[in-house]
Design a protein that fits this description.
Chain A: This is 4Fe-4S ferredoxin-type domain-containing protein. Chain A: One of its GO terms (cellular component) is plasma membrane. Chain A: One of its GO terms (molecular function) is oxidoreductase activity. Chain A: Pfam families: Fer4_8 (PF13183). The complex is a heterodimer of chains A (240) and B (153). Chain A is mostly helical. Chain A has a domain of 107 residues. Helix content of chain A is 54%, strand content 0%. Chain A contains 14 helices and no strands. Chain A is globular, with a radius of gyration of 21 Å. The relative contact order of chain A is 0.10. In chain B, the strands form 3 sheets. Chain B has a 6-stranded antiparallel sheet with strand order 3-4-5-11-10-7. In chain B, strands 6-8-9 form a 3-stranded antiparallel sheet. A two-stranded antiparallel ribbon of chain B has the order 1-2. In chain B, β3 and β4 form a beta hairpin. Chain B is globular, with a radius of gyration of 14 Å. By secondary structure, chain B is of the alpha+beta class. Chain B is 24% helix and 33% strand. Chains A and B meet through α8 and α13 of A and β8 and β9 of B.
């Protein structure tokens, strides 16, 4: 089978396995609206911030998918797919391709199939996933820790050391907490959790990080229990 | 005390290497559990530790506490089935104790095991743990343990 890059990695992986994952992407209901052919003009690459910093090109994704090159597809799925910042600057394409959306679908396929690359890429974000799924806010001030932001140098040390003081210096709408960016009501948190659960997002998490799934389920189902909800009684929870 | 790539492994403890947990057998039939030096290194600066409430029943392999660092979160898995009989409120108030004193002040919960003999059989002593951790760190590409200022051996 033709491969865009003759040196495409993962030669030891069966072509059937690569094809099955490729098919999952092309069978996604969003896929037909992502690719209309490629002029190879490179406008998407010129607009792409990730292309400036990584060996990454949105054009390669469009070309590989159009050529049905499952070998290079598999390599991208295990590597470059995680270099995209999902800013969708690439939608400036004159053919109205959307390489960013191809990548969205590919990432979901990587996660749904529990690929090692997905586990590795998302490992550093476990607390962000935990935060958004248990509190409704994605980031919290206490994420500013010197070992996670070494590039901030002394600044992050100063901020981390006196975080609660810095928080008190900004408007009261932030609740002055360091654990949350802002306060989200319990009702909203429970609704969000039910949405994650009913739409299969929790299963995705379970495929990627079983430990994260375990604590998330425990924390949220304890909250449901506190409010007297039965986890299987979806209608009641959503109506209340 | 054994030393593997600058990681300390006290000789009087038992270990569950895959979950990075140490176990200390207490005189009253309880077991004390906590995170290893390797676990605190992998987590980085720990900012929250939330052990479950006293009286909670726990299954083997399930979570007895949630630990959060800057961007990482994970469970502390119990190597024993049983009941949580005590929890360490000191680590709730100051989770950095887990970085500073993982084997001393940084214990997390005490459990009364339901099947002490059966569950203990799955744990290993310091010698076997040292060999397993050498391989574990190789796999995780972890060169050595990192000890923060004030680390207590």
């Amino acid at each position: 089978m033709f491969a865009l890059y003759k040196d495409a990695g993962y030669q030891d992986v069966l072509v059937e396995e690569k094809q099955a994952l490729f098919d999952q992407v092309t069978q996604d209901m969003r896929y037909p609206e992502t690719l209309y052919g490629c002029y190879e003009c490179g406008i998407c690459v010129a607009a792409c911030p990730s292309a400036r910093f990584y060996d990454f090109s949105p054009r390669v994704f469009a070309q590989v998918m159009a050529r049905e090159d499952v070998h290079t597809f598999y390599e991208l799925l295990n590597d470059s797919v995680w270099d995209c910042s999902q800013c969708f600057s690439c939608t400036c394409c004159p053919r109205e391709n959307n390489p960013g959306a191809i990548i969205t679908i590919m990432r979901e396929v990587a996660v749904n199939n529990g690929l090692a690359s997905a586990k590795e890429a998302l490992q550093a974000y476990s607390r962000i996933i935990f935060k958004i799924m248990s509190t409704g806010t994605q980031v919290s001030p206490d994420m500013l820790q010197p070992d996670f932001f070494p590039d901030w140098g002394q600044d992050v040390r100063d901020v981390a050391e006196n975080l609660d003081v810095w928080r008190r210096a900004i408007p009261p709408e932030t609740m002055h907490t360091v654990e949350l960016a802002w306060d989200v009501s319990e009702k909203t948190r429970l609704e969000l959790y039910m949405i994650w659960k009913l739409t299969g997002n929790l299963e995705m998490i379970e495929n990627i990080d079983e430990g994260l799934f375990m604590i998330l389920e425990e924390v949220m189902e304890e909250l449901l229990e506190e409010h007297g909800y039965d986890i299987d009684d979806f209608d009641n929870i959503l109506e209340d | 005390m054994a030393l593997v790539r600058n990681c300390l492994l006290p000789s009087d403890l038992l270990y569950d290497v895959p979950t990075n947990i140490w176990v200390r057998e207490l005189d009253d039939g309880m077991v004390e559990i906590g995170m290893t030096d390797i676990a605190q290194t992998l987590a980085g600066s720990i900012i929250h530790c939330r052990p479950k409430k006293v009286g909670k029943k726990v299954k083997k392999g399930k979570s007895v506490a949630t630990v959060e660092s800057g961007k990482w979160v994970g469970p502390v898995r119990s190597p024993f089935a049983g009941n949580i009989t005590e929890r360490n409120d000191a680590v709730v108030n100051d989770a950095t104790i887990l970085n500073r004193s993982p084997y001393g002040e940084g214990w997390i919960v005490r459990i009364t095991p339901a099947d002490m003999e059966g569950d203990r059989a799955t744990l290993v002593g310091v010698e076997e743990a040292s060999t397993l951790y050498e391989a574990y760190m190789q796999e995780k590409d972890l060169a050595s343990c990192i000890h923060c200022e004030g680390f207590e051996e």
